[in-house]
Design brief:
CATH superfamily of the largest domain: FAD/NAD(P)-binding domain
CATH class of the largest domain: Alpha Beta
Number of domains: 2
Shape: elongated
Helix content: 10-25%
Structural class: alpha/beta
Largest sheet: 4 strands, parallel
Strand order of the largest sheet: 3-2-1-7
Oligomer: single chain
CATH architecture of the largest domain: 3-Layer(bba) Sandwich
Number of helices: 7
Bound molecules: flavin-adenine dinucleotide
Length: 278
């Protein structure tokens, strides 16, 4: 009887197990995962928004473990591999032997190398259930959240936060949101919808630096082109900003091929005067 070890209890690992069981009815299957639950990352925003419980994120049968006869070691990290001995080394100091090994450990959040950002306690990814638990706590006290990236994950994240009543600021290098999926004209509908829900949006700007306090917490992100948005301060009224800042010419934001009528006019883009720069 063969022994299969699968590392990772998400889409790849689970479907790998389903296939393995089809072809080998007798094998011993051991599943090892850092995750303590099997959940869909695609609907994590609904968990953040409080619309779903962890049970309702689950995409496998209730009796998955008995149905597929799986010995699931949950909440355990594989920290090494002894290929000569055919063993997986686990973070609890034990080892798991295998005949065949499936590594289905997925990916992880990429935090860009932004000045001052690495190691900050309020730099949080949006990928694992643990991230969402932290974000839920954050949303209870912080009323201004900056989301870097307006791709599918950034949009999910912003949507989840909106349900919690926090102010969301969305920033992206690209000239419009979902720029890999949508052209500027189609994106306009989403930009308008986010504007209507009070999301402050900055497109065509990069974040090169964050400002931190003495606890290494991020207090502001500095946008290229001298924009700055503060993650922890309540949003000030636009008229106050107008008095202090000069509006940036829209032409400088229009990416090649972007037709003027599609410019998101209601997107607020402000420029810091040279004497106010950090
Ligand atoms: C917010 C968000 C929204 C998404 N929305 C969509 C969508 O709408 N449509 C779509 O098609 N895709 C979506 N995706 C992508 C989709 O979730 C991934 O493609 C999918 O989860 C990949 O599955 P995976 O099994 O390869 O890896 P992952 O889901 O990353 O799972 C990896 C597994 O490995 C475990 N693991 C990792 N390292 C170790 C270790 N050292 N030891 C033990 N266990 C370990 C983890 O605990 C986890 O169980 C979204 C992703 C995110 C983050």
């Amino acid at each position: 009887m063969k022994k299969y070890v699968v590392i990772g209890s998400s889409a790849a690992g689970v479907n790998g197990i389903r296939e393995l069981r089809k072809y080998d009815k007798d094998a011993e299957i051991v599943l090892i995962s850092k995750d303590k639950d099997i959940y869909s990352r695609c609907i994590l925003h609904e968990y953040l928004a409080g619309k779903r419980s962890i049970e309702r994120l689950r995409f496998v049968e209730k009796d998955f473990e008995t149905l597929y006869r799986v010995n699931w070691k949950k909440g355990i990290e594989a920290v090494g591999l002894d290929r000569a001995a055919k063993e997986v080394i686990l973070d609890d100091g034990t080892r798991e032997s295998y005949d065949k090994l499936l590594i289905a450990t997925g990916s992880h959040t990429f935090f860009p190398p932004i000045k001052n950002m690495q190691g900050s306690p309020n730099m949080i990814g949006f990928r694992n259930i643990d991230d969402i638990e932290v974000l839920k706590e954050v949303a209870k006290t912080k009323k201004n959240i900056v989301v870097l990236g307006s791709g599918l994950v950034g949009i999910d994240c912003a949507t989840g936060f909106l349900e919690l009543g926090v102010k969301v600021v969305l920033c992206d290098f690209a000239g419009w949101l979902l720029n890999k999926q949508l052209d500027p004209e189609a994106a306009r509908a989403y930009i308008d919808a986010f504007n209507a829900r009070g999301v402050e949006q900055h497109y065509g700007v990069g974040v090169n630096e964050v400002k931190i306090n003495d606890k290494h917490e991020i207090t502001a992100v500095v946008l290229s082109g001298d924009h700055r948005c503060r993650p922890q301060r309540r949003h000030r009224h636009p008229l106050r900003l107008l008095r202090r800042h000069r509006r940036r010419p829209l032409q400088r934001r229009i990416p090649p091929g972007f037709r003027p009528r599609t410019v998101p006019l209601r997107t607020r883009l402000w420029r810091v005067r040279p004497d106010q720069r950090p």
